[in-house]
Amino acid sequence: MRPKKAFLLVLAGLGALVGGCGGGEEEAPATPGASPPPTTEETPTVLLPGPRLKGEMSLEEVILKRRSRRDFGDSPLTLEEVSQILWAAQGITDRTGLRAAPSAGALYPLDLYLVVGEQGVKGLGEGVYHYIPQRHSLELTLQGDVRQTLARLSLEQMFIAEAPLSLLITGEYERTTKKYSGRGVRYVHMEAGHVGQNVCLQAEALGLGTVTIGAFQDEEISQALNLPPSYRPLYVMPIGHPEW
């Protein structure tokens, strides 16, 4: 066999080998932040519809119209609206696992909970739900309508109970302070602010209203909503269709 022909045959064999090694699915990249909690057959899970990546209103118009709104009608939200709000808050926005709001060291110390009232969301029962960004899904953690309790523990701000749902932003400080020590506390609070503003703007873009609330009884809310012991409530944000 001529040397040139032998060389070409070797190249062809190597090409076939490389092509075979490249088959199959590409391995998913590691996701920054905490791993999603394991699910079991007993954990009621709701997969959310995918978010829209283009809206009907410009960012500048949304910023211009944004206001704190405390008067809500009783019209329920849709799962599509809930999906969009949660995606804007903590949704994963690229293949490496980075999210919609910036996080120091991409450690993502925040967890979101929805407090849903009776007929507050079409297709979703009343209760408390934990948002899982890695699966863009909700997991029921507590059954029942606890909006009245949430309002009472928020220094009697009873308009919270009138909103179809409230978003609770919680923080687990250890995820950030283990790297940044005491400075990490500030970073967690900054991140909560980033998320809160994203929610305000997304709600406005959807024709919904919300307001950021920081006046509440931390420990009592944690117990009433059955939060993990290391999670601290940072924001309460009632969301609904505003009454103009």
Question: If you had to describe this structure to a student in words, what would you say it looks like?
Answer:
The chain has 244 residues and is an alpha+beta fold. Helix content is 35%, strand content 17%. The chain has a single domain, classed as NADH Oxidase (3-Layer(aba) Sandwich). A seven-stranded antiparallel β-sheet has the order 1-4-3-2-5-7-6, sandwiched between helices. It is globular and about 45 Å long.
Please estimate the helix content. Answer: 25-40%
Secondary-structure content class:
alpha+beta
How widely separated are the two ends?
87 Å
**Structural domains: how many:** 1
| Share of residues in strands | 15-25%
CATH class designation: Alpha Beta
List the keywords.
single chain; 244 residues; alpha+beta; NADH Oxidase; seven-stranded antiparallel β-sheet; globular; disordered N terminus
Question: How is the topology of this model organized?
Answer:
Blueprint: H1 3-21, E1 45-47, H2 59-65, H3 79-90, E2 110-116, E3 127-132, E4 137-143, H4 147-153, H5 159-162, E5 165-171, H6 174-180, H7 183-205, E6 209-210, H8 218-224, E7 232-240
Antiparallel strand pairs: 1-4, 2-3, 2-5, 3-4, 5-7, 6-7
